[in-house]
Amino acid sequence: IVEEDKTLPDAKRIRLDDTEDITLGSADKPGTRVKVLGRVHRFRSQKDVIFITLKDGYGQMQVVFAGDLIKTYAALTLTLETSLVIKGQMRELPPTAKAPLNRELHADFFRVIGAAAGDKEAITNKVQAGGDPQTLLDQRHLVLRGDVLSSVMKVRAAVLRAFRQAYVETRCMEVAPPSMVQTQVEGGATLFGFKYYDEEAYLTQSSQLYLETCLASMGDVFCICPSFRAEKSLTRRHLSEYMHIEAELDFIEFEDLLAHIEKVICRVIELVLQDPLMAGYIKELNPDFKPPSTPFKRMKYADAIDWLVEHKIDFDDEDVPEDHPERKRPHRFGDDIAEAAERQMTDIMNVPIFLTHFPLELKAFYMPKDPADARVAQAVDLLMPGVGEIVGGSMRIWDYEELIAAYKRVGIDPTPYYWYTDQRKYGTSPHGGYGLGLERFLAWLCGRFTVRECVLYPRFTNRCTP
Ligand code: 4AD
C-alpha cells in the first residue's frame, strides 16, 4: 500500500468529463491535482507503467500509474471493472499520444474501493466469439458496462429529451394515461391479460384512446409511456414491452398529420446532433447516418404493391402450405406487406417513406375511410431504411354512427368503450395521431440490427429476466 503524501495540494473532486478550472501540467510544470472515482474500463501494463482507462458514466480518462504505485499488490492484481479512488495531477498528453479529452492523470495515490472478479471480459468475449447469445442476455447487467450498449442508452436519453422539447415547440402537452386498462386498441391477438382484483384487465397496447379524450380540454397532447404486446413471433423489431411515444392532434386533416410527424422527427434529429457528445456517439455507432431530407417521400399502399410486383418481391402466404407452388406469389391489393418485404423496399429506396392509404380491413377499427377512395383508410406508416416501420398513425373516425358501425365490423363490444365513444357525442372534431416506437427509432438512428440493443433489459417471447 502506498500512503497519500499529505504535503501535496488538496485534490479537487471531478467527474471524468469535467474540464472546468483544470490546468494541464507537464513534467516540469504542475497541473491541477484532482480526485476521481470510477471503474477500470481497460488497462495496459508495461514494464514500469500501467495505463488505465477509467470510466465513471460521465466520461473516460486515461490514468497513468508509475513508480511505487505499480509495485502495490492492488496494481499487480488489477482487474477490469474494479472501482477505484485516484488522486493525481492532470497533464498534457505527450505529442503523439491519444486519450479522451487529450489529457491524462498522473496518479500519486490510489485505493481500491471494490475489486472485481476477473471474468467479465471472458463472459462477453465468449459470446462475441460465436457462443450462446442467451448468455449475453443473461449477463445484460455486465454487457451494459460496455461502450456500445451504454452509448445507445445515452443517445436514448437524449432522444427522449429532444422529443419532449420538440413537443413543447409544437405546443403539445404531456399527459400520463394508465397502463392497466380494460379496452384493446390494436387487436386482441397481442393483448397481455391479467387479473385486476376480480376483473379481467390488460396491459395497454397504446394510449391513443386516452389521448383522444384529452383533446377537448388540453389541446394537442402527447405521452411517453411503455406499451405492451404479446407478440408471438421473434423478430428484429418486436419487443413485448417498448417505449411508445404517442401524440394526438385536434382539428386537423390527414396532410397536417404527415407534416407534423415529419417536423417532429427532423427537429429531434437536429436537437440530438446539436449535442457534440451525442453526435460523437452516433458517429461511432452509425458512421453513415445522415439526417433525412424533407419532404419525406410519400407513397400510397397501392403503389407499393405495384412496386413490389415490379421488383419481384413476392408475398409469402402463410395460409398456404410450405411446399405449395402458391405459397410465394406476386403481391396483390389487400395483402399485408410483411416485415421482410417492407424492409427490402425501404432499403432499396433508402429514404424515409410515408406509406399511406392502406386497405381498411388491414387496419385498426378506429381508422376512417379516405373520402376519395372508400377501400382505403386515412392511415400512415413511416418506414425507415434498415428498420422498416417506426411510426403508425391515422385520422380517427369522428362520426358517432360510423364508430358504432366500426365496432360492429370487427366484433368489439362497445360497452366498455363508452368513454371513447362519448368524444363523438360531445363536440366531435376531425383529429388524428400516431405512435412511434422509441427502440425502432433508435435502431435506425444508431444503426443497430435489432430493437433489443436499444432498450436496457429487453422483454420478448420467453425473456423476462434480468
Ligand atoms: O402501429 P401501431 O400498432 O399503432 C398504434 O399502436 C397506434 N394506436 C398508435 C397511435 O396512433 N397513437 O404501433 C405504433 C408504433 C409502431 O410503428 C412501432 O414503431 C411501435 O409502435 N411498435 C413496436 N415496437 C416494438 N415492439 C413492438 N412489439 C411494437 N409494436 C409496435
TrEMBL record:
Keywords: Aminoacyl-tRNA synthetase, ATP-binding, Coiled coil, Cytoplasm, Ligase, Nucleotide-binding, Protein biosynthesis. It catalyses: tRNA(Asn) + L-asparagine + ATP = L-asparaginyl-tRNA(Asn) + AMP + diphosphate + H(+). The keyword Lyase does not apply. The keyword Secreted does not apply. One of its GO terms (cellular component) is cytoplasm. It comes from the Eukaryota. GO terms for molecular function: asparagine-tRNA ligase activity; ATP binding; nucleic acid binding. Its EC number is 6.1.1.22. GO terms for biological process: asparaginyl-tRNA aminoacylation. Residues 153-458 form the Aminoacyl-transfer RNA synthetases class-II family profile domain. Transmembrane segments: none annotated. It is found in: Cytoplasm. Belongs to the class-II aminoacyl-tRNA synthetase family. This is asparagine--tRNA ligase.
